Amino acid sequence: MSRIDAKFEELRAAGKKAFVAYIMAGDSDYDTGFEVMQGLPATGVDIIELGMPFTDPMADGSTIQLAGQRALEGGMTLEKTLQYARDFRKTDDTTPIVMMGYYNPIYSRGVDKFLKDAKEAGIDGLIVVDLPPEEDDELCIPAQATGINFIRLATPTTDDKRLPTVLQNTSGFVYYVSMTGITGTADVQTTEVAPEVARIKAATDLPVIVGFGIKTPDDAAAVASVSDGAVVGSAIVAKIGAGEPVSDVLAFVADLADGAHRG
User: For 188-210, what is the mean pLDDT?
Assistant: First the structure.
């Protein structure tokens, strides 16, 4: 059983929904980013999404784009992102880590080398937003063979004809993007999300987690009430980008986690 599977089993047993927090590795600098990451489990974060900085993050809004720029300007690399996981695992061997980003850095490193290094570093899952199911042989299938979950995005435009293809090789959980467009640009509408989550859950036994547009603890609670959990990224990254103290960032994350857990 993977750490992701074990986490969802634990949450189900406790009658709780999941809270997933996204941060960009190396934002606003290497040490600050890692201090935030280390502090996330104590705030109630169930799964950490660790962003891989990339020069052309086409699915991301300005908040996460700027986070990636700050990280890259500070010298962050894919190797250093993997080092985050290695160092994190020295004190935490249970919290799942999902790396999220784009295929180019992985391709440049070499898929086989990347997967070997990621597995050894303690990475549990991958979300690679620019690799469609038609290219599963490129990374998805090799990742699953290595024991790393490959988590797919479903969106409001994923119709009933497309959904089985999206779900075919997905594992860990399904990430439902609550709106069309890029990250951090609109507010989530739970009344629109609920029937879409139900439609996806009718087609898979995997947990369905909802992200995009969740900015407050009440948002997280509302989304978690109609799904298996909530993901927050831009709202957290914005506080890091504003230079708020790590303690304040983590206090905000704790409030979001409380919201999701009561959902």
Answer: 92
